[in-house]
Amino acid sequence: MKVELISIGDELLIGQTINTNASWLGQELALRGAKVTHCAVIMDTEVAIVEALDIALSRADVVIITGGLGPTKDDITKITLTKYFGTELEIDADVLKHVTSFFQSRGREMLEVNIQQAALPKSALVLNNALGTAPGMLFDIDGKTVMSVPGVPYEMKHVMSTSGFDYITDKYPTTDLFHRTIHLQGIGESFIADRISDIESGLLSNNIKLAYLPSPGIVRLRFTCQPNNQEEKLIDEAIEEVKKRLPKYYFSENEGDLSQVVGTILKRKSSFLGTVESCSGGQIANEIVRVSGSSDYFKGSLVSYSNELKVNLVKVTPSAINDFGAVSEEVVTQMAVNGRTILNVDYCISTSGVAGPTGGSPEKPVGTIWICVAGPNEVITKKCTFGEDRARNIKMTALTGLNMLRRMLLEINN
Amino acid sequence: MKVELISIGDELLIGQTINTNASWLGQELALRGAKVTHCAVIMDTEVAIVEALDIALSRADVVIITGGLGPTKDDITKITLTKYFGTELEIDADVLKHVTSFFQSRGREMLEVNIQQAALPKSALVLNNALGTAPGMLFDIDGKTVMSVPGVPYEMKHVMSTSGFDYITDKYPTTDLFHRTIHLQGIGESFIADRISDIESGLLSNNIKLAYLPSPGIVRLRFTCQPNNQEEKLIDEAIEEVKKRLPKYYFSENEGDLSQVVGTILKRKSSFLGTVESCSGGQIANEIVRVSGSSDYFKGSLVSYSNELKVNLVKVTPSAINDFGAVSEEVVTQMAVNGRTILNVDYCISTSGVAGPTGGSPEKPVGTIWICVAGPNEVITKKCTFGEDRARNIKMTALTGLNMLRRMLLEINN
Fold first, then answer.
1. Residue A108 has what DSSP assignment?
2. A189 near A222, Cβ under 8 Å?
3. Are B33 and B12 members of one domain?
4. Fewest CB within 10 A of the end CB: N or C in chain A?
């Protein structure tokens, strides 16, 4: 089965928006055994949409169009498709009900343009969009499928996950590839490759694909093979071996966040967590709270960005700041240790560093960051040397702190 | 002048790599008055390259191809282009010298495949690549230009910046498009469209394009026209009118974040900010700290996620929590007012709500969020009714809180 994507929007062509929709769809379809063979990014004009659709339908079985479904005048996908497939618009009662309740539940007035969002091409199947007012549409023509979904990423993902993908895999039976993806924190891809080169060679000689998918602070390893007991077993064994070799770095399988992994352990231990953050500015708290149910193990944080609050709120001794500087093992240790008491928690993560791009010095260049985890039995600290990029430094600090906590909780020392 | 992009690589189609090259090229070309009118992401096969090139050359003046220039077997762009343009490969002495010194200076052995990187199509102009071993190539055919550059982002940027862009703008005198982009917070695109429909109609009848670019909590409006004093003036006037009609929502032009806008005002006023966050879990602090130099106006935060910390740290009265619940105007007001004192700041933003997906009740469904801003002269509160999605609720809470603060700082009441 061949799938082609058409991403509509001038904002993509002039680079105001990066086309993350296409990469997400490519990933998700690959997991379902479908291959994206082409992606066209086009202007939001009728001519461009018609031309792209003609070409895509001449080659592919399934065409997924993203974007151009909003209520405003510059969104012309729906009207163009209606003409293209020789049908007409008609108010869909169910969609109108959904749009109406969408506005009512938010206490907002509904406009004529919003009512028009319930007007849909007669010949299209509606793909419901619980998260927004523009539903997706599906046209079935001569054994080929054209799907039009919103361009807003979380609405697009929702529509595809709740109905779009199922429709495709039902209509075009695929052989799902077998795959497992594991996550590692705190080790770069070339270092992983070096540590597991023998495992990788063994997999390659058995037609098993291993992909390294790096993002700041995290590397995902994806193992893929055709469905086949023997090869699947080889993947299972390889993953067990990677986990055994790299326990410091391996933290989860599939899409589990590090904050989720840590949360599950804390909950199991009936332990409570807090953070005292300086350079990470609440990012660790934020990562933890993103997980639903985190109130079961997370009490809160002190974001002591200024030295004034480090002293007054967190009770760091002024002499430690004077003698060693705010970015020091002494200060970060006091922050975590005092945090345990002030926040009344079992574990506390603290951070203090030079996130950059300014504030560096020869002794403490930009990217120098101290992290501490204080627990009931031990206190561990780590000095990190990240790079120049502020946002990346903050993200890496949060992930490193969470992984230090994970290792303390699981008593992993190497 | 029309430019089309062809991005080559299976890794882009299966979503292992996000196509940031295309968005960078789109931005840079727009700045130079050239418009990217189409981008095709294709597989690295000869058939796909030839087909994409045929189509692109039938429409565009300039085609920029990225990727597929590496030394390994799966990189076939160079050989395909050599065939396509009926020429042949020949070692380029200057490029060979560069490749040789590239390996020598890194103390690495040079392989036959690396020597072959200096073999280039006879009819092509070489675009030097000081940062790597694969140079760019430029073919000039019947007034049209085909450029092939490496896919590695920093090499591609280097080749384009040092020679590619100059070649294009020298050959095709461009007229820069005029465009302005403004940002609004707290109002959906359909409501903006409704409030400015007369302005929009006036622009459309003058060939001025207005695009709505929504993301959670923020809508960007992009106005574009051909360079022309009269039309540019119409855009300037339209933007002034939008700002006058929607001062509550308009917060910046170009790519300014709301946290940056608020930071600039605080700094100008020599005022200090803190936050006391429950449901937003440090997200507001995080947004503020992402801005470099935020220590000039941001002291820190209390993330009082648990009721225990709301009482013990933030000094919320237990009776307020018992009588009204943690998600209430009373509690959120005490949080912000007490936060001003505890954090010793002029302004304090506080949040308390049901981020979801669990924890909702008939009176306080998921998405019910109270936000308060306390300043030296006034205290304002707002009850928000967002949706079901936890991450989105947290993001919207942060943006709404920052915009409430902005309005208080600028004394905008409607």
1. -
2. no
3. yes
4. C
The confidence score (pLDDT) of residue B255 equals: 62
Distances (CA, A) of A361 to A356, A358, A367, B89: 11, 9, 11, 51
Same domain (yes/no): B68, B45: yes
Measured between CB atoms, which of B15, B35, B220 is closest to A30?
A: B15
Provide, as residue numbers in chain A, all residues whose Cβ is less than 8 Å from the Cβ of B344.
Answer: 308-309, 312
* Residues B241 and B333 occupy one common structural domain: no
The residue behind tokens 């993953």 is A239
ipTM of the shown complex? 0.80
Chain A environment of B188 (Cβ under 8 Å): 108
Partners of B347 in the β-ladder? B273
Among candidates B13, B293, B295 on the partner chain, residue whose Cβ is nearest the Cβ of A39: B13
What's A27's domain CATH number? 3.40.980.10
Q: How far apart are CA A76 and CA A154, in angstroms?
A: 20
- Count of the separate structural domains present in chain B: 3
Q: Mean pLDDT of all residues in chain A? A: 93
| Distance between B38 CA and the closest CA of chain A, angstroms | 5
Task: For residues B200 and B167, state if they share a domain.
Answer: no
In A, which residues are within 8 Å of B181 by CB distance?
16
**Same domain assignment for residues B166 and B269:** no
**Residue in A with minimal Cα distance to B311:** A343
**Do the chains contact at A295 and B303, CB–CB below 8 Å?**
no
Q: Are A400 and A382 in contact (CB under 8 A)?
A: yes
In a shared domain, residues A276 and A403: yes
- DSSP assignment, residue A149? E
Task: Give this prediction's pTM.
Answer: 0.80
Decide which of B171, B202, B231 is a domain's last residue: B171
A114–B42: do the CB atoms touch at under 8 Å? no
Strands A273-277 and A298-304: parallel
Residue whose tokens read 């055919």: B141
Same domain, yes or no, for B247 and B364? no
Q: Is residue B248 located within the same domain as residue B151?
A: no
Mean pLDDT of successive 10-residue stretches along chain B, which has 414 residues: 93 87 92 90 94 96 92 81 96 94 79 87 95 92 94 90 93 81 93 94 90 86 89 96 96 86 97 98 97 96 98 98 97 98 98 94 95 97 93 95 97 82
Nearest to B282 among A25, A35, A301 (CB): A301
CATH number of residue A225's parent domain: 3.30.70.600
Which range marks the domain in which residue A203 is found? 178-253
A40 near A56, Cβ under 8 Å? Answer: yes
Write down which residue in B214, B238, B253 finishes a domain: B253
